[in-house]
Prior knowledge:
Four copies of one chain form a homotetramer.
Chain A: E1 5-6, E2 11-16, E3 22-28, H1 38-48, E4 65-67, E5 71-72, E6 75-76, E7 81-86, H2 108-115, H3 130-148, E8 153-161, E9 164-165, H4 186-201, E10 209-216, H5 230-239, E11 244-249, H6 260-263, E12 267-270, E13 273-276, E14 284-285, E15 288-289, E16 294-300, E17 310-313, E18 319-322, H7 333-358
Helix pairs in contact in A: 1-3, 1-7, 3-7, 5-7
Amino acid sequence: MSMNSFGHLFRVTTWGESHGPALGATVDGCPPGIAVDEAFLQQWLDKRKPGQNKNTTQRKEPDAVRILSGMFEGRTTGTPIQLMIENTDQRSKDYGDIVEKFRPGHADITYWQKYGIRDYRGGGRSSARETAARVAAGGIARAALAQMVPDLQITGYMVQMGALGIDRAQFDWDEIDRNDFWCPDAQAASAFEAHLDWLRKDDHNSVGAVIEVTARGMPAGLGAPIYGKLDTDLAAAMMSINAVKGVEIGEGMAAAALTGRDNADEIFMGPNGPEYSSNHAGGILGGISTGQDVVVRFAVKPTSSILSERRTITKSGEETTIITKGRHDPCVGIRAVPVGEAMMACVLLDHILLHRGQVGENQGAIG
Amino acid sequence: MSMNSFGHLFRVTTWGESHGPALGATVDGCPPGIAVDEAFLQQWLDKRKPGQNKNTTQRKEPDAVRILSGMFEGRTTGTPIQLMIENTDQRSKDYGDIVEKFRPGHADITYWQKYGIRDYRGGGRSSARETAARVAAGGIARAALAQMVPDLQITGYMVQMGALGIDRAQFDWDEIDRNDFWCPDAQAASAFEAHLDWLRKDDHNSVGAVIEVTARGMPAGLGAPIYGKLDTDLAAAMMSINAVKGVEIGEGMAAAALTGRDNADEIFMGPNGPEYSSNHAGGILGGISTGQDVVVRFAVKPTSSILSERRTITKSGEETTIITKGRHDPCVGIRAVPVGEAMMACVLLDHILLHRGQVGENQGAIG
Amino acid sequence: MSMNSFGHLFRVTTWGESHGPALGATVDGCPPGIAVDEAFLQQWLDKRKPGQNKNTTQRKEPDAVRILSGMFEGRTTGTPIQLMIENTDQRSKDYGDIVEKFRPGHADITYWQKYGIRDYRGGGRSSARETAARVAAGGIARAALAQMVPDLQITGYMVQMGALGIDRAQFDWDEIDRNDFWCPDAQAASAFEAHLDWLRKDDHNSVGAVIEVTARGMPAGLGAPIYGKLDTDLAAAMMSINAVKGVEIGEGMAAAALTGRDNADEIFMGPNGPEYSSNHAGGILGGISTGQDVVVRFAVKPTSSILSERRTITKSGEETTIITKGRHDPCVGIRAVPVGEAMMACVLLDHILLHRGQVGENQGAIG
Amino acid sequence: MSMNSFGHLFRVTTWGESHGPALGATVDGCPPGIAVDEAFLQQWLDKRKPGQNKNTTQRKEPDAVRILSGMFEGRTTGTPIQLMIENTDQRSKDYGDIVEKFRPGHADITYWQKYGIRDYRGGGRSSARETAARVAAGGIARAALAQMVPDLQITGYMVQMGALGIDRAQFDWDEIDRNDFWCPDAQAASAFEAHLDWLRKDDHNSVGAVIEVTARGMPAGLGAPIYGKLDTDLAAAMMSINAVKGVEIGEGMAAAALTGRDNADEIFMGPNGPEYSSNHAGGILGGISTGQDVVVRFAVKPTSSILSERRTITKSGEETTIITKGRHDPCVGIRAVPVGEAMMACVLLDHILLHRGQVGENQGAIG
C-alpha cells in the first residue's frame, strides 16, 4: 500500500523531488511484449517540458528519460520498468525568503505540519515536477494501448482559461496541436494568448484553466464497480494532479441543473452495436464504459507563485509578507494537458488488464 | 485488491444486491475500544431511509442493521466488523419490461456488456441500495471519530436543486435538519419543495442536485501525497456514489476563473496556530489538510427512472421504448446527503489512522 | 489493505469470532458465470466439521453456510459473494478460569497485549473456527476451478502424526477418503489411530502433524515474481492457518541436505511438452509453476488445550496454573486437511486470474 | 497491487535485472526524520557482495548504492526513497549454451512459459542479484528500527550446510562475524569450510543450507491477524528469496513430532512483564509477537548451476544436455544470510508502523 502509487494491475509508483538528483517512475504490471523505447516516451515528456514558448515558465530542463529495467530486445518483459529523469540543475543556490516563509497556496505549510520537515528546494516532493514521472509512465501505457487497442485515441485540450471558454461549435481536433494552449478552437486560443500576455506582463498575476481529456474508440465494459469504477479511478487520477480542484465526467457539475428527460442518453442500434442519442454520461454508466467517448474535465487553479505581495507566516510562526519571484508558469493549466492525457492512458490500460483478470478477455463486450 | 472496497487502513467492503437476501459492509481496521451499537448506526441509516416524506420514494424498507462481529462488551475489538441489512421484500414479482429492456441512464446495459449477466431485479449490484451499506460503515467511522477527535463535525447539505441554488448569505447550520432537503437556507428549501412537487406531479420528471459536505474542527496534517492525497481520496469516494458526475474541493471548477491574486488564502497567526484570510483551497493544500474546514461538493444527476417514454434496445438488440414505472425518488440528491457524510467520515478516519502509521501520532500537527 | 483478507484478484476477507452471532467470508473477484450453490460448499464444510468421529472434538456445530449475495439464477455475477455461517450456540455460559487466565500456547496473551481486550469466549477471533470461513471460500474457488481448469485436482492428506510417518511406497490416492486421518497409507492410518487413542485416553495429551496438499493437473506459468510468487503465496496461505509452524515446497527443509547434482530435476520432452525426471522443486521454479504437481507441506503444532496442568499468569499479572478442560481435538492436524485444500484452491484460482490480468489468457503456456 | 512489492505500510518495490543498466528498490512509507546515508546502507550490501572469499562466487561487483530521493539534510522526509545500484559489467558477451537451453533448477523455463520471453543474460529478473535491492531496502529499515526500537537486534546465521549442522550447545553470538559462513559454532564453521572445499574442487557440486534469523529485544504486540500475521508475513518474505524451499517459525516442522505437554511455553512473571519457560513458539502466538525472541529458519536449495552435465531441452523443444559454467556460489546459502536479515528488518518495521496505524502507538504492549 504505497501512497505514491496508483493503478490496480498497471501500477505506477513515482518518486523524487524537485531538486534531488533524479525523479522517476517504477511501472509494474505492463504486459510483456510491448514495443517501446526512450524516444517514444520522450515525445510526451517534450510536450510537458517547460520553456517551449513564452506562455510557460522559462526554466530549461531537458527532462530526458532513461529506461533502466523491464526491457529485453526492445520489448517489455512483464517485469518492473524503471524510468529515471535526472535533475540537471541541482546546484546549491539562494532560496531566499522561502527557506523560512510558507508560500500561500503551496503545500509548504502542510508538509511542515505533517512531516515536521521543510524541504524548501522548489517544493520538494510537492512540486509539479513530479508530473514528469507521470508523463513518462503514461508513455508506457500509450505504447501498450497502441498495440492492444489500436483504435483508441486519447486527447487532452484546454477548454477554458480564466473567464474565457471555447465555442463548442468551433471545435476542431486538428487545431489542438497548432497552438500553444492545446486549444481546439483557434479563436479561443488567440483570446487566451492575449489575456495571458496581459496577466503576465502588466498584472503580475496568474490564472486558472479547465482541461478536458477525451478517449475515442473506447471498448465497452471497462470499469470495476463499486469502488474501482472507471469514473471513480479517473476522478482520483485527475484530482491527484497538482493544483486540480474539481473533476467532471460528461455533464459534470452541470448535471445538477438537468431534468431526467433532458439527461437521458437514449439507446438505439447502430451497425456495430448500441449507439446513443447523446453523451451526457461521458461514456460511463454505473462505473463501466458504454463504448461512447469517455470525457473527463478538470479545473486547475491559478498558479500560486505570483509577483504580488501576499501575507504569510514563517516556520517559527511570525507574520510577514512574501512575493514569490522566479520563473513560474502564469497558467499551469497549459502544461497539465499532457499530464491529464497520461493519467487517462494509465487508467484505461489498467482497466483493460483488470477486466481480463476479473472477467476474462474473451467475455463481455471487450472480447 | 477488492474492487468492492475502499480505504487504506480503515477498509470498507460492501456486498449485496438490491433484491438479494441481504446486503452489508465488512469493516476492517477500526481501532479497538470504540463504543458503538446498532442504535447508533441506525440513526444514520434512518436519515437515508426511503419513504420518510413525499419528496423521496414511497417504498418502505426498514433498513435495520445488525452487527455480526468485531464487538465485545459494547466496544470494538480491532477485528472485522460485519454489518448486515436484510432485504425484507424479496418476493418474486413481475419486473415487466426491464427483464429484457435496458433502462437509459442506468447501468443495465454496461453490466450486461461487462459480465454477460442481466440481474434485472432492481438493478442488482448497481442499485443505489448499496449506499445503505456505506451509511452503516460511516456510522462506525463516526463513532471512532467522536471518541478520537471530539471536535470534528461532519455535515452534508443540499446547495442546489436543478437551477435553484442557496443564498450563501442565508446559510444557517441549524436549518439543515429542519427541512426535507437538508438545506441550510430555509427559503431555498421552500423553493426546492415547490419545484419538486411540480416535477413529480405535473411534469413526470426528475432533477439533479449539488450536495456539499463540510468537515469542521479538522486536524491539520491529514492526507498522504501523492496518490493518497486527502482530496484525491475524497474525489474517489464521492465519485463512487451512484449518479455522481462531478466533484469539487473548495472553489472547485470555479477555480479556473480566478486569478492567483484572488485565489490566495493569505496566512496569519491566530491564537491556536495558523489562520487564513479565506478558504478557496477547501482546507487542503498539496493533498494535506490545513486545519481549515474541508469543503467537498458533488453533483448528482437527475433520476434516470422517469415516467416519460424514452427510446432504448433489448438484450437481443431490438429497438423499442421504455417508461420506467415504480416508486422512484424524483431527486436522488436528497438521499445522497447522508451517503456523502458517511464517505467523508470514512475517509477522515482512514487518514487519521494512516497518519499514525506513516508519521506517528505524536508527530506533526496532529500529535 | 485489510489484514483479514488474502488474495490479489480473487480476494477473500474473513470475519467473525468463535462465539459471536455468525462468521463468514466476503469473497470478491470470483469470475462471473460460475455455477455454484450452498450444497456444493457444504460438502467441504462437512469435511472440516467437528464431532464426526472419536478423533476430533465432540462439539456439535452444523456449520451450515448461506450465500447472501453475488449470485443470480444459480451462477456468480462477478460481484461480491457473502458467505455466512451462523453460530448456533452462543448462550452465556461459565468460561471459568480462562476469563482471567491466559492459556499457554494460545493467542490469549498476545491479543491482550496488542488490543488491550480479552474476548475469552473460545478465543474470539483467534479461534480456529475462523477456518470454517476459509473452507466456504475455498468451495467457491473449487467451483470456479472445476469450470475453468477441469483437469486440476487438489488433494490434502496427513503424512505424519507425532513421530509416526507414512511409507511413501504405500501411497494410495484412493485410501485418503477411507480413514479418519485423510491418510494415503492405510497402515499408517491404523498406527495414527492407536497412538491418538492412547494420547487422548491415557496420556491426556495432544500431538502435532504434517499435512501435505498436492495439486495435480497444473497449468504451467502460474505465479507472479518476485513477491507474488506461487510458493510465496502458498507459504503465506498455509502459515496463516492456526497452529502452523512450518511450510515446505517440494523437498522443503530437506533441500538443505541435498547436493546440486541430486537436486536437479532434469528436463526432457514428453508427448505434451516438457517433462521432468523428478520433482524436487515441488512444481515451482522461480516462483512460477512448471506444470508438474505442486506439492506443499505444513506442520501443525499439538493442540495447546490439554488436560495437564501448566503454569501461567492472569490478566493482572499474578502467577497461577491452568488445566484447559472442554472438548478439544487431540490432533488439530486432522481438521487442518480441508483447510489446507481450501487455501490451495484460493491461491491457484487467484493466480490463474492474475496471469490473465498481467499477461493475457492466450499468452504463455496457460493459453 | 504490484507483484514486485512487499510490505503494508513500509512498502518495498524492487526492480531491475541481472544484466540491465541498474537495479534497485523504491522504498515507500519510511517514517520521516530517520538519519541514514549511503555508507550505512553500503555495509549491509558489502556483507552480501560476491567475491569476498573463496567460498562465494569470484565475480566482482562493487554493488555501490545511491540514494536518489526521499532525503533532506541527511534525514528521511517521509516520501519515497529510491535506491539504485548500477550494474557495472553489462558488456555484450557470449552467453553460449544458455541462449537456447534451459538450465535445470533455474527459472529459465518457467519465465519462458509464462511470458514468452527468454532474457538469457544471467537469468534476467529471476537472478539472485535482485536480492541486492532487498539488502539496500533492509538497510533503510535497520536505520529506522535503530532509532525507533534501539534494543532490537536482528542477526542471521547458518545453522546447517548439507548434512552438517551446528551444535546448539556451542552457540556463540560473537562467533558469527568471525567466519565466512556467519556460523555461530566455530567448529561447525570449520567443517562447513572443509566440506565446501571438497565439493567445489573435487566434486564439482553444490550444497544446500539452513539459515536462521533471530530478532532479540522484540516488542510484544506486533502482527496483524488473520492474514497479516507476523509469522505469515515472515514466511512470505523468506519464501520469496531465491532458492528457498521451506520456512520455519520456532520449532517449525519439528513441532509435528511434539506433544502438547512438551510444546507448552509456560508463562510466569518476570521483572519486566511476562516471561516464558521455553520458546517453542518462536516468539509468536496467534500471529502476534510475545516479546520473546522471534526465530525464523529457511532452507536454501543447492545452487543449480553446477559443472556436472545434466539433461535439458532447448527453447524449440529439442532434448540436449547442459553444463553450467561460470563463477557460481557453491553454497548460495552463505550470501542468503544478509538477505534474510534484511527481510526480517523490513517486516518488523512494517509491523511497528501497522500497529501504530491500526491500534495506536500508545496502546497495548508497544506503547
